[in-house]
Amino acid sequence: MNPRRSVLLLGILLLLPSLFLPSGTSFAFTSPQESTPVTSSGPTDQDATQIGLPTDQIILKYKTPPTVGDVMHPASADEMQRLSEAAGVSLTYVREMSGDAQVLGLPSSLPLIEVQAIAERLSTLPEVAYAEPDAIMTHMLTPNDPRYGDQWHYFAPGSGHYGINAPAAWDITTGSSSIVVAVVDTGITNHADLSGRTVPGYDFISEVAISNDGDGRDSNPSDPGDWVVANECYAGSSAFNSSWHGTHTAGTIGAASNNGVGVAGVNWQSKILPVRVLGKCGGTTSDITDGMRWAAGLSVPSVPNNSNVAKVLNLSLGGNGACSITYQNAVNAIVSAGSTVVVSAGNSNTNASGFQPGNCTGVITVAATNRNGSRAFYSNYGAIVEISAPGGEVAYPGDSNGVLSTLNTGTQGPGADTYAYYQGTSMAAPHIAGVVSLMLSRNPTLTPTQILNLVQSTVTNFPGGSTCNTSLCGSGIVNAGAAVAAVPTGVTKKTYLPLASKGAATSLAAPVLSAISNGDGDGNYNVTWSAVSGAMSYLLQEDDNSGFSSPATAYNGANTSWMANGKPNGIYFYRVQALGGAGNSGWSNTQSATVNIAAGDFVNGDFEQGTTGWTEYSSHGWDVITQTFPTSITAHSGSWAAWLGGENDETSYIEQRVTVPATRPYLRYYHWIASEDACGYDNAYVLVNGSIVSQYELCGSQVTGGWVNRSVNLNSYAGQSILLRIRVTTDGSLNSNLLVDDVSFQSSASSATIPVASDGDQGAEAAKATLLENPASASQPEQ
Q1: Is 426 annotated as catalytic?
Q2: Contact (Cβ atoms closer than 8 angstroms) between residue 248 and residue 236
Q3: Is the full-model pTM beyond 0.70?
């Protein structure tokens, strides 16, 4: 039974429908069970765990990006109210981000599982392409506190020092000043061993509370420190000192070398681009992806273009969850622009497939090894990993088994220059980024695909007895000397395999994609596929051609079905892949769906597909589009209809964005009015783009006793895309009900009359009235 209004039949009056009154039971959105807080036992890495960190923002993208000033732009009060009603919480507009997406603010930070539920409600809006949490990412290190002889991780591989063989690479090249490597991290401090090694970067942290530098985004990527006190990030979070994480990763990539000072970097000549995206408690997906795009030379709203485009991006950061659409879109754009993205696998000692952005397609995901060539105890692993590099293992402060690099002595704000051994996949990734930059220094025309193939085909094999193997830690430990030597610099042509999806091993069977049923040709249909034994999740791709030349991710999750909503006219092709800890399957068979909607047709105008195509709202939290009705009422056709009102102090509506046909400008729907109230209190409205074009009373003298055809002339909107809303408001006593069904556009007004009836309160006879309305040329705003 529909868990909304329970109704009490009061009686039957002559020529009146049954009168009914809700029980008055209150309903509200129920919050999912709160996740167990992430805890920390000291100054350890805040690497996101299986549950994710709380966040106070959502990323939303429209199918057709609205322009500023458009009534549908989220910066407008009407649209923000509508989004808030759909979300079930009060939302605020924060900003536009790269990739035509928008950032919306929540009233406060909420557990990630609650934010996901809110985002899923927003995703049901027909005009929304996707909505997802603006998840918090954190750097991936386990910091501990204090030269080339101490940097075992650079040495030629051998017993007790399985390094990257950097000296052999330096014999070929020490880098090129024309190559830029972006360190997408906490920013950078002024360190003598990084002096002259950087180009102007940018601070992308938009929230002052996270930035810790007194303002939002600016052109100063300096790291002011990321220290926190206990419970500052979330309930139960620990206090820890500033990490100077970006300074440490930058030193591994490119500390000034052969200068008689401090430590060496992998690349001695190429420039470092500091891109600050992590601050107190981490950083948001929206800030990180904006920083990534900018680093690769792509435009970001309200940020000057980057004149020092990075060919390599190092992301020693991550958080839990499947690769979000926001991350995957950013990676796709960056790789298409010719830049390589290197990401740490994570420090949770679990399968890396559950951590983004390392599980995104198109990035190089790096696991960490220790001094003996085994998997570091903390390192994530699995088929999602492409390669390994030294990340170290530190048993106590100053333990030389860690990775030595540049740091700062400050516990909060910056202090003096120093050096320290850190451990983590955050330390492994910059080794790969540094090697890639050496390869590009030798041949800047290398593509991301060629780079991956070269580093994977020239690795040092894991030593005998290692806890790493090619199923857990990628193809091997990166060998800088062999990789740089293998770079083609002449005209010799080599064949390179395409850049594979994450975990290209085929230990899983391929799913079978079912034929797609879409007999009515509308934009709503279900795509289903067979479950695969051992699969952890499924990746569904969509394209406009069967060759999948430019596929988009339609779904990435554990379900075996996906619902298409509000798709525009066209042919859509689908294929699906199973993802698992032991490897990914091949692609399934291909299926297609054809959408052929006549201009101006409502999606699911008869409601027989439930809420598909419609947004519904009830201030009491009830389902508006339903199969459960008041006593003696049935749907006009089929078994579904919309039930508006039906309770005191209720606001409810249904709405859909649709184009008014030039040849069929008359809105028509069937409605059934049932009310026990006097006139002047409860009302129904038809609104276009937030303005009232039709208003009528819901009261005893207007009861219809059955379904009545109502028409509204929308000729003044012919050919325009509009947001159509049918809305009911009731006051604090004597309820009224409006049932709506079979919404469509017609070429002419189909007139109907209200049956003569007795007013339940005043006893007056209602005159016959035509339910045709012609809105005034200037519509009144909604009250």
Answers
A1: yes
A2: no
A3: no
